[in-house]
Recover the amino acids of this structure.
């Protein structure tokens, strides 16, 4: 039976690095009750549960078997996303998943179909695009401040995460690399800005075939690099606009992010789409200055999308960051990946409707239910 009031019961599967950021937020939202955390490694779940005062922890079943949990947050590694999300749907619970949705188009279809058949929701990261930073820029775009949209430029360039992540192997395997790991922040923002993508072309490269872990108990160990570590692509959107994108773990130094939208009368430079805040810069053609725009909107961190989905669930309305959106962004990324091998353009079969903007006064810390 669908509940209509009270906080939404949430469970977490995956107690690794990013679970801490989610728990930082989810445990402070009055509309969410974090009831349990499970992991293949129950000791990792126990550590996080203790840090954040989560009442139950253990293997994954601790989460799946709790009848009061309505949404399960999947924070496992990409290769496990499909099986874990499927097991959540199979026990009749809604899914919020970290990116990417899954790693293949077949798994995406199967997961989204299963959710539809069972009347369950899937929501997908990144939820940074609901933060005040990106939302302020999108409001300016939709308000006509750069005129008719024409094109975009997106660049994420870094040396790669193996220096700071204690278990970085998965970030260089199927479902990761800079395209699948960092691409979602930029590609989600671009789809929210310009709508669905119709076709792509791309080239990719890999600077080295092994890397060395730089921190944690495994520091000094080497591992194989299985995916391209630089992808440079072109996107053509359904509405005729275009974008040039570049995602790299191959740069000597971390470079400032670039995410710019250009229209007939001006350009918007967005804040880092991997953050929830940050200023937007706006330049009008003919005036050779940037004007800064302070972010207005939801404060918070990872977990905001889960909260937005929880509130939508109670209200019986659609949530914004749907599985279909995550599936379309996955489809774009797989198409870019395929294009790196074909060195040609690959059509994207799926389409999607961009969600409504989040209201400026969306306050995670207010009890509304
Ligand atoms: N680390 C980051 O900065 C970051 C940022 C944003 C998003 N993410 C995303 O979050 C997800 C997790 O990343 P992470 O850095 O926390 O990884 P991690 O390796 O630190 O943690 C993953 C956890 O999932 C558990 N796990 C793996 N397979 C499982 C399974 N089948 N069932 C139950 N538990 C399982 C592991 O034991 C581990 O505790 C990834 O999808 C990643 O893309 C990570």
């Amino acid at each position: 039976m669908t509940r209509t009031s009270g906080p939404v019961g949430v469970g977490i599967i995956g107690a690794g690095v990013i679970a801490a950021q989610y728990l930082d937020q989810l445990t402070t939202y009055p509309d969410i009750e974090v009831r349990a955390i499970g992991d293949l490694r129950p000791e990792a779940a126990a550590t996080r549960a203790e840090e954040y005062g989560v009442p139950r922890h253990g293997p994954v079943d601790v989460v799946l078997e709790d009848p009061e949990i309505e949404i399960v947050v999947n924070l496992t590694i990409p290769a496990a996303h499909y099986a874990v999300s499927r097991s959540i749907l199979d026990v009749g619970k809604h899914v919020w998943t970290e990116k990417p949705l899954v790693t293949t188009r077949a798994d995406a279809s199967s997961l989204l179909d299963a959710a539809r058949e069972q009347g369950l929701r899937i929501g997908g990261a990144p939820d940074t695009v609901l933060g005040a930073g990106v939302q302020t820029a999108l409001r300016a775009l939709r308000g006509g401040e750069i005129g008719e949209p024409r094109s975009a430029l997106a660049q994420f360039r870094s040396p790669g995460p193996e220096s700071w992540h204690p278990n970085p192997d998965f970030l260089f395997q199927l479902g990761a690399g800079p395209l699948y790991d960092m691409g979602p922040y930029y590609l989600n923002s671009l789809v929210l800005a310009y709508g669905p993508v119709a076709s792509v072309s791309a080239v990719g490269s890999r600077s080295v075939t092994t890397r060395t872990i730089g921190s944690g108990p495994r520091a000094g160990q080497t591992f194989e690099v299985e995916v391209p570590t630089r992808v440079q692509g072109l996107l053509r959107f359904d509405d005729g606009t275009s974008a040039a994108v570049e995602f790299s773990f191959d740069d000597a130094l971390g470079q400032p992010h670039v995410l710019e939208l250009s229209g007939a009368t001006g350009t918007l430079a967005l804040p880092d789409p991997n953050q929830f805040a940050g200023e937007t810069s706006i330049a009008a053609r003919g005036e050779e200055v940037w004007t800064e725009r302070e972010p207005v909107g939801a404060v918070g961190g990872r977990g905001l999308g889960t909260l937005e989905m929880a509130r939508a669930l109670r209200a019986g309305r659609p949530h914004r960051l749907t599985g279909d959106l995550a599936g379309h962004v996955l489809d774009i990324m797989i198409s870019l990946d395929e294009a790196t091998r074909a060195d040609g353009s690959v059509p994207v079969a799926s389409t999607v409707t961009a969600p409504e903007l989040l209201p400026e006064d969306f306050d995670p810390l207010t009890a509304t239910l």
Remarks:
- The chain has nine helices and 17 strands.
- The domain at 129-293 is CATH 3.30.360.10 (Dihydrodipicolinate Reductase; domain 2).
